[in-house]
């Protein structure tokens, strides 16, 4: 597996851990990396995802709540909730990652770690988020800038 897939797995695992701890994080990030060992390259990709998800958690969770209006937020499985958080964070705040990549990666993570319907559930929510985006779905910002 590539460093980005493993980095995304680490980000989901970190936020899953936070959920199980009632929203609190380890006192030192090194505690997490001891629990979830990763190469320096994986950490280099994962750490900004982890930090960005924390920074934008309220915005991301509001988006999940909006599109799960008929489904109570706390009833979403912790795996699905954190996979959604990662993908929505990437889609809204990481212009360097094409939205379709975020969606595809999230579906794969949901299938890998979630329940039998997790892939479909995550895809359905992310498809609605995708409709709100005004940027190209298949290009990163740096790719658009270099083409101009």
Structure report:
This protein is mainly α and 148 residues long. It has a single domain, classed as NusB-like (N-utilizing Substance Protein B Homolog, Chain A, Orthogonal Bundle). 70% of the residues lie in helices and 0% in strands. The protein has eight helices and no strands. The protein has helices at residues 3-20, 29-35, 40-55, 57-67, 78-93, 99-113, 118-130, 141-147. The protein is globular, with a radius of gyration of 15 Å. The N and C termini lie far apart (33 Å). Residues 144-148 have low confidence and may be disordered.
SSE topology sketch:
Layout: H1 3-20, H2 29-35, H3 40-55, H4 57-67, H5 78-93, H6 99-113, H7 118-130, H8 141-147
Helix pairs in contact: 1-3, 1-5, 3-5, 4-5, 5-6, 5-7, 6-7
What descriptive keywords fit this protein?
148 residues; mainly alpha; N-utilizing Substance Protein B Homolog, Chain A; globular; disordered C terminus
Biggest β-sheet strands, sense, barrel: none
Question: What's the shape?
Answer: globular
Give me the CATH fold name.
N-utilizing Substance Protein B Homolog, Chain A
Distance between the termini: 33 Å
CATH class: Mainly Alpha
Report Rg.
15 Å
Could you report the average pLDDT, rounded to the nearest whole number?
Answer: 88
Helix content: 55-70%
- Spans of 5+ residues with little confidence (pLDDT < 50)? 144-148
Number of domains: 1
DSSP summary, beta strand count: 0
SSE succession: HHHHHHHH
Beta-strand share of residues? under 5%
């Amino acid at each position: 597996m590539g460093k980005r897939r493993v980095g995304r797995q680490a980000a989901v695992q970190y936020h899953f851990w936070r959920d199980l701890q009632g929203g609190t994080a380890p006192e030192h990030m090194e505690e997490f990396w001891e629990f979830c060992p990763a190469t320096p390259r994986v950490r280099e990709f994962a750490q900004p995802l982890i930090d960005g998800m924390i920074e934008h958690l309220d915005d991301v969770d509001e988006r999940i709540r909006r599109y799960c209006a008929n489904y109570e937020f706390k009833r979403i499985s912790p795996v699905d909730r954190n996979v959604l958080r990662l993908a929505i964070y990437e889609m809204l705040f990481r212009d360097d990652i094409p939205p379709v990549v975020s969606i595809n990666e999230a579906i794969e993570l949901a299938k890998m770690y979630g329940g039998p319907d997790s892939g479909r559930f995550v895809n359905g929510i992310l498809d609605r988020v995708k409709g709100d985006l005004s940027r190209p779905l298949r290009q990163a910002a740096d790719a658009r800038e270099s083409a101009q």
